[in-house]
Amino acid sequence: MKNKTPQQDGLVRFLDEEGNVRHPLPELDAGLLLRMYRNMVHTRLFDERAMMLQRQGRIGFFVPSYGEEATQTATAAVLDPNDWAFPSYRNPGVFLYRGAGIFEMFCNLFSNEKDLCLGRQMPAHYSFSDLRLFSISSPIATQVIQAVGAAMAFKLRKQKQCAITYFGDGGTSENDFHTGMTFAGAYCAPVVFVCTNNQYAISMPVSRQCGARRLADKALGYGFPGVAVDGNDVLAVYVAAKEAVERAREGKGPTMLECVTMRMGPHSSSDDPTRYRDQKITDEWKKKDPIERFRKYLTNQKLWSDKKDKELEEQLKNELVELAGKAEKVSQPTIESLFDDVYEKLTPQLEKQRGQLLLERDLIGKFENSSESFPL
Ligand SMILES: Cc1ncc(C[n+]2csc(CCOP(=O)(O)OP(=O)(O)O)c2C)c(N)n1
User: Fold this and answer.
1) Atom number, ligand 1, closest to the C-alpha of residue 198
2) 247 CA distance to ligand 1 middle (Å)
3) Is 238 a catalytic residue?
4) Is the pLDDT score of 374 beyond 60?
5) Which of 112, 47, 103 is nearest to 325 (CA)?
6) Range list of β-strands (E), the chain
7) Nearest to 113 by CA among 264, 329, 363, 356
8) Whether the Cβ atoms of residue 317 and residue 52 lie closer than 8 Å to each other
9) Which residue's alpha carbon is at the smallest distance from atom 21 of ligand 1?
10) Domain locations in the chain?
11) Quick check: 39 pLDDT over 60?
12) Which entry of 132, 247, 263, 293 is annotated as an active-site residue?
């Protein structure tokens, strides 16, 4: 990192846990700061609403990102609309920052016919290609090679765009991570690798995942910089991510960011973190909450107040309740939609299968509205 970025405990950091500035900050526009804060709150409330829907049995599955709001928001904030993002399932904040429709995100959770993937993806696997948000892959780190491929296309076409991709600490043990990093380093691809080190890959702590001091150090072996950042300091993530994106656009090649944070909730709605994580660890990290920290900073700067905070929360909560309710009323995709968007013109075999399926539906009845519960 350039000199402007301070290092504390080996991490880039500007704000302490009380939101006090510990190092001179680059000048940042107030509008940008407030937009980032709003997005962080929005992400948390979206996660809360979705988890509530799951606990009430209204959706089958969800993946919350509690505690990771700063990392998602600041890395999305440095992108141009033209750049492509290749997120993971734990990045609703990236989708929200880039303007994804909240109604459509809920439609994904309900797997209904207004879901942009027509209910074919898992819940929390959004896809908004119009916003250059690539469809999410469940297998860990698949998106890393996809992002490098896209970045290479930008480079070959001489387009001043970059790709950004997100994965967890567990992702850095995957073959696709190493393949992507090798290729990006060798061919100087304009890509930013964002590793959200949230300390756990489901129940596997990072200490059992890797012996390196910092996951960012892995980048050095591939010939490009790796920068470890306090992932709960939105300003530190913003500054480091901006530098990485600028490097990519200037043709200087990839950067890996390791955003050190904690997954404050479960891995997904299907596990109980108290079975594998000491409550004391969770309690310690609560004191480092990225939203609280940023709120204190904004309040100190006279950019924010408790009154504004209450109003924002109420407005966002009401909107989320309304949009979730609206999405819940949408019908499930029709069974014949299985055959849409596969080929421009169906093959004779698929035409036949479609006919058989519709015949069976007419014989059996409306099986697309089955009430079977989600298998996970
Ligand atoms: C290739 C592959 N192996 C295993 C799984 C099962 N699985 C899903 S999420 C996960 C943990 C991923 O942890 P990490 O990469 O740290 O990301 P996080 O979920 O913490 O954001 C595992 C093992 C999978 N989806 N894909």
Assistant:
1) 20
2) 29
3) no
4) no
5) 103
6) 7-8, 11-12, 84-86, 163-168, 191-197, 200-201, 204-205, 226-230, 255-260
7) 329
8) no
9) 168
10) 7-328, 337-369
11) yes
12) 263
Average pLDDT of the residues in 94-108: 98
Q: In this structure, what DSSP letter does residue 269 have? A: T
**Alpha carbon of 71 to ligand 1 centroid (Å):** 18
Distance CA 263, CA 290 (A): 12
In tens, the pLDDT along 52-74 reads: 999 999 999 999 999 999 999 99
d(CA 4, CA 14): 10
Kindly state the helix (H) or strand (E) to which residue 183 belongs, with its residue range. helix 175-187
The 10s digit of each residue's pLDDT in 165-181 is 999 999 999 999 999 99
Q: Is 264 in the pocket of ligand 1 (CB under 6 A)?
A: no
Statement: residue 202 has pLDDT above 50? yes
CATH of region 7-328, choose from 3.40.50.970, 3.40.449.10, 3.30.70.100, 3.40.50.2300: 3.40.50.970
CA distance 268 to 47: 11
The three-state secondary structure class of 64 is: coil
